[in-house]
Amino acid sequence: MTAGRPLRSVMVIEDSETMRGYIRMCLQAFFPGVQSLEVPSGFDALRLLPGLAVDLIITDINMPDMNGLELIRFLKTHPTYRQIPIVIVSTEGAAEDQRRGMALGADAYVVKPFRPDHLAQVVRTIWLRYEQALPSMPQEEPAWPPES
Description:
The structure is a single chain. The chain is built from five helices and five strands; from the N terminus they run E-H-E-H-E-H-E-H-E-H. The protein is of the alpha/beta class. The chain has a single domain (9-133), classed as 3-Layer(aba) Sandwich (Rossmann fold). A five-stranded parallel β-sheet has the order 2-1-3-4-5, sandwiched between helices. The longest helix has 18 residues, at 116-133. The radius of gyration is 17 Å and the shape is globular. Residues 137-148 have low confidence and may be disordered.
């Protein structure tokens, strides 16, 4: 990452264990030190999120119990989670599917299959945009009079 703090934690919500492993491998290859928390469903994500500090979410759309679009709709209307950037990864690549995901508040849409460097570039772009949009942390006022 070129500026701001590094990406530290990503929640991967994907029902395919193989795809979760692939996404983890992509993240670890391009973002050293990043922690990935992998869950198989939107319900599992909602159960675990309250105790976690998650920088970014990567979610599939087609999952049992709660699909990714329902999850995004919930997260983007919840005051605690609405600022978390979300990347959709899905086999549903039609323009209408992508439009629907983005309209609900996703920050990016990646169509499966994808190359590791493509996912990394999307995540990097979203993370940098998110970091730049954050309000600056207030600077501490210097002690007055200055200590000698």
